[in-house]
Amino acid sequence: MTKEYIIEQGVPAPLGSATVSAATVNAEMAVLLYFQEEQEFELEVGDEFEIQGKKYQLKSLHPDGKSRKFPYLVLIEVGQE
Predict the structure, then answer these.
(1) Is 4 within 8 Å of 80 (Cβ atoms)?
(2) What is the pTM of this model?
(3) Close Cβ partners of 13 (under 8 Å, ≥ 6 residues apart)
(4) pLDDT at residue 2 above 90?
(5) Which residues pair with 8 in a beta bridge?
(6) 19-46 burial, b if ≥16 CB within 10 A, otherwise e?
(7) CA torsion angle for 23, 34, 42, 61 (degrees, to 10)?
(8) Is residue 25 within 8 Å of residue 11, measured between CB atoms?
(9) Which residues pair with 59 in a beta bridge?
(10) pLDDT tens, 29-65?
């Protein structure tokens, strides 16, 4: 089963052993901040990126926040053996 990570805008969250946060979430794209390396990823749905040797993919964007307090995005881990 694919592991999903919900990352809220402005809220630091664990991603493996890294700490990330969504700086921006809108209908077209998101900006993900990776604190340990001071990196920024601009992502559209389906984009893949790597943090600490693990690959992740942006699965969906939720700028309305739905039932959550903040807008959020959903990441999945890819390339699992």
Answers:
(1) no
(2) 0.91
(3) 5, 6, 7, 19, 20, 21
(4) no
(5) 72
(6) ebbbebbeeeebbbbbeeeeeebebeee
(7) -60
(8) no
(9) none
(10) 999 999 999 999 999 999 999 999 999 999 999 999 8
